[in-house]
Amino acid sequence: MSISLSKLNASEPTVAIIGAGVSGLSIGWRLAQAGAQVEIFERSDPGRGASWAAAGMLAARSEAEPGEETLLQLNLKSQKMWPSFKDEVEAAAHMPIDYRDEGTLTVALDQDDAEALLFNYKFQSKLGLEVEWLSGREARKRESFLSPNVTGAVYSSLDHQVENRLLVDALRIAFTAAGGMVHNYTEITAIEIKGDTVTGVRCGEKYREFDVVVLAAGAWSRTIKGLPKELMPPVRPLKGQMLALRMDLNEPLLRHVLWAPKGIYMVPRTDGRILIGATVEEKDFDADLTAGGVLHLLRESWEALPGIEELPIDEMWVGHRPTSRDDAPILGPTDLKGLVMATGHHRNGILLTPVTADAISRYIIDGIVPAEIAPFGLDRFQKKQSHNKTAENIEFQKGAA
Length: 401
Prior knowledge:
Strand 18 and strand 19 form a beta hairpin. Helix content is 32%, strand content 24%. The strands form four sheets. It has an eight-stranded mixed sheet with strand order 5-6-4-14-15-16-13-17. Strands 8-2-1-12-19-18 form a six-stranded mixed sheet, covered by helices on one side. Mean pLDDT is 93; it is low at 1-10 and 386-401. By secondary structure, the chain is of the alpha/beta class. The chain has helices spanning 22-34, 50-53, 69-93, 111-126, 136-142, 164-177, 291-304, 353-366, 379-400, and strands spanning 14-18, 37-41, 57-58, 104-108, 132-135, 152-156, 160-161, 181-183, 190-194, 197-203, 206-209, 212-215, 235-246, 257-260, 264-268, 273-277, 313-324, 330-333, 339-343.
């Protein structure tokens, strides 16, 4: 998809993006394609935060849960965009990003698992999602190395995966090829404001003016100084430990993305690795691998796929999901002119890359908030806070009476 500047064409807006993860890089790429002057500021190497630590699952259907129906619609829209987005990224970067479409299996290992899985299956089916119930035997026809204890499964043919680390590299290449600039190891120390307008960013003592500033710093978004308290995004780091095993490419142990009970997933790669993740820990920015975390990943994945016992460990790492107060992304404009949010994607950053890039770049170009991101603005938290304060005042007045 090519974009041409319309409303802002004459001025060729200057845009600073804070954060070179998949959100920042893809937004920057779309804007650079449109003719905007875009610079991305990254505190480390591009894409080495949550984007690098992820598993690359594109699983809107398999991960659909009650209470997240609005987010599901955004996820589905982005998932539908992925095949064409993949083609365009690969063409722009002249490299593959290993998009795989075998589908996703979610399995049950005992009666309790089966009841929970059946509940989710009925919920997903009621929403019209294309998922299929399988018996244990039918599941093992798809994946012959599954445990004989698998009693049932749900198969989603439309939930795919992409190699997220290749995606990061491809987006960086595409962005710079389109004329964008990435400043590595350049930490933004503050966002500069004058009145009700963002004027630029500060890197240490150096000040740079920009027409638009996009905050796409993931789990670090709340650490950027300069914003008033009410405009600081409620995003926190949610620690996740992961590991990768290496299987024999001549006899792969797994072909589909596999979800086991207790939130464990296994993702096979074309290079022979199987990614296993992930723990969910409220540990701030703690980056330690722990014996308990690794044990949990190996034990629960072994229950579903016993053959992993003989596989060598290839890599272990920790990532920090950028998680908002309601686990949904924060997208779009704010009360400050020129300040745009693209953060808080929680576990859906890779899945939501196409829709984030498209919607945020369209807003910056046209000044109109696309309908698909309208429910995900920062103001939803401000409205909730205002409602809570009103309720507290009412209760206080009742008490005083």
